[in-house]
Amino acid sequence: MSAIESVLQEKRVFPPSAKATSGAAISGMDAYKALAAEAERDYEGFWARVARETLTWHKPFTKVLDESKAPFYTWFEDGELNASYNCLDRHVEAGRGNDNAIIFEADDGTVTNVTYQDLLERVSRLANALRKRGVKKGDRVVIYLPMSVEGVVAMQACVRIGATHSVVFGGFSSKSLNERLVDVGAVALITADEQMRGGKALPLKSIADEALAAGGCEKVKDVIVYRRTGGKVAWTEGRDVWLHEIVENESATCEPEWVSAEHPLFILYTSGSTGKPKGVQHSTAGILLWSAQTMKWTFDMKPGDIFWCTADIGWITGHSYIAYGPLAIGATQVMFEGVPTYPHAGRFWEMIDRHKVTIFYTAPTAIRSLIKVSEADEKVHPKSYDLSTLRILGTVGEPINPEAWMWYHENVGKGQCPIVDTWWQTETGGHMITPLPGATPLVPGSCTLPLPGIMAAIVDETGQDVPNGQGGILVVKRPWPSMLRNVWGDPKRYQTSYFPEELGGKLYLAGDGAVRDKETGYFTIMGRIDDVLNVSGHRLGTMEIESALVANPMVAEAAVVGRPDDTTGEAVVAFVVLKRTRPEGDEAKQIATELRNWVGKEIGPIAKPKDIRFGENLPKTRSGKIMRRLLRSLAKGEEITQDVSTLENPAILDQLGEAR
Ligand code: WT7
């Protein structure tokens, strides 16, 4: 609650400068209000107009929104298009083939420019090679690649032939990769020998081999390997092929597969409140339309701008704001293979300087960690670099605390650049609530107002609107084109997770708590209301980590909660009961390390608990429910003020209070 209070007390307001407003796509609050009013007045007409103006249709749509199978909505369903055509061909056809699409900077600093013509040819070659190997419309292809031009090429090649991709973040374990390969029913896997991060080569192919050997992926016929480092890898003849070899003799042109607007563009797994991640299924026109439109509205992207989104292609941000949005509008973007601290913590600022970046989009957690190092070392401080090309800054993934916001504003933006604090989710496909750089007066810590056409609201547990100033549940009242269409293979879960009966079955439940300011109506996000943690802007299900811990033969029981963390936003704290007696001292430390590595193996390093505590039992109610609120207090090191009279063994509170 303290974060919310500090935002609610936030009185600093930063109106857009005349420079930011002049020539902006949405210039001034009146322009914003006019667009929002247009959407209110004629919802379908508004979306149809935007969809016609933004995308190139092979066959125009005649229907806009179909609500007859709600909450399984469809948009522009009888329209046909191809995502790759919209991202590549149409710019080349317009004579812009020599414009840079991607300025790629490798971990070691090597820079490669890829023009739209180059990209189209590379995508076409791989698309032809995939077709030749029998991959066809509707097939699922899993992509397990590092940040690379090949990653974007692989995504674009899949959708060019109507295949649906599912990108798995390169930091996920073989077990997580296996689960996703099985659940999505992949026919092919595109991976790399190794990935380079912070000067180190990390394995990918060997993890992929393990994932494939773990069973259930018999449908995977081809493993296509991008040679990134040339490191030694095991090879399964007849299954494994080098990417550079299969594209060598392919034609540089490839007829796109025209698909329905509703055709699944990709499936991206994300954590929910159960142990099993959800395959969030997105549509072709929805993602394309909204990622392109928000590039223009939220980032005010214009010809000559250089955009840089630091997210990984393994997350939704890397889908909508690297692989699709920037390309759909023909932008030039920087893409970075490495980490912000290598070879030094000034890398981001150095790269903005080197590539003359004008629009920079990153995560609050990165900003917070860079504040610490740059305040300690002038050489890596933003002031040591020329950041004068910057005109717009953005953040995403978690709430940004006003202090970090102010630092970003003053030190990176030199007080001149609007900050767009974009609230959205894997499920929403693109920005939902965000300031507009040429219109919205900014308040640090608030994501301000919904984009035109997005009917965001705050309700109570019964689905009734709450007045401004009162906290509640964040919902979206009407379907929008870039929303998820389904949970892959689990329509029931789609319905119960996102359109729960308790709220009337018609409101989209985001899973966040929020409050609107009494005077301005500005939204402030209060964080998740379900059992989902947000660590460094990554979503982790507490149940998922608990299941991973319990899968360890030593562990009898485990409960996982979040604790506020200065750098990562939230940190994972695990309370563990072992099958043997409770360990103490060095032994406890050693087992904690073992369990941490175990979770890294089961899910991925991002899910490793920061803190593991051992008890003889967990605090439970008489009915056997774990008292999570109490665990959260213990995790924070707070004095226990709750009623603990129902606890069987109050001594365990002392045990669980000790950090390891
Ligand atoms: C959750 C979604 C959106 C792409 C990256 C994360 C939190 C996201 C903000 C923001 C406060 C935010 C929410 C949301 N979140 N952006 N600007 N302010 N919170 O996508 O993994 O699907 O996570 O991230 O809690 O529900 P994701």
Textual characterization of the structure:
- The strands form nine sheets. This protein has a seven-stranded mixed β-sheet, with helices on both faces. Strands 7-6-8-11-12 form a five-stranded parallel β-sheet, sandwiched between helices.
- 33% of the residues lie in helices and 22% in strands.
- The longest helix has 18 residues, at 585-602.
- It contains 20 helices and 30 strands.
- The radius of gyration is 24 Å and the shape is globular.
- The structure holds 5'-O-[(S)-butoxy(hydroxy)phosphoryl]adenosine.
Short key terms for the protein model shown above:
single chain, 660 residues, alpha/beta, 7-stranded mixed sheet, 5-stranded parallel sheet, 20 helices, 30 strands, 22% strand, binds 5'-O-[(S)-butoxy(hydroxy)phosphoryl]adenosine
Topology:
Elements: H1 2-8, H2 18-21, H3 29-41, H4 43-54, E1 65-66, E2 74-75, E3 80-81, H5 83-96, E4 100-105, E5 111-115, H6 116-132, E6 140-144, H7 149-160, E7 164-167, H8 174-184, E8 188-192, E9 194-197, E10 200-203, H9 205-213, E11 222-226, E12 240-242, H10 243-248, E13 259-260, E14 264-270, E15 278-283, H11 284-297, E16 306-309, H12 316-328, E17 332-336, H13 347-355, E18 359-362, H14 364-376, E19 392-396, H15 402-412, E20 419-422, E21 456-459, E22 472-476, E23 486-487, H16 491-498, E24 508-516, E25 523-528, E26 532-535, E27 538-541, H17 542-550, E28 555-565, E29 569-578, H18 585-602, E30 611-614, H19 628-636, H20 651-657
Parallel strand pairs: 4-17, 6-7, 6-8, 8-11, 11-12, 16-17, 16-18, 18-19, 19-20, 29-30
Antiparallel strand pairs: 1-2, 3-13, 4-5, 9-10, 14-15, 15-23, 21-22, 22-24, 24-25, 26-27, 28-29
Helix pairs in contact: 3-4, 5-6, 5-7, 5-12, 6-7, 8-9, 11-12, 14-15
The structure holds 5'-O-[(S)-butoxy(hydroxy)phosphoryl]adenosine.
The site of 5'-O-[(S)-butoxy(hydroxy)phosphoryl]adenosine has 24 residues, from α12, β20, β24 and β25.
Enzyme class: ligase
Keywords: Acetylation, ATP-binding, Ligase, Magnesium, Metal-binding, Nucleotide-binding
Organism: Caballeronia jiangsuensis
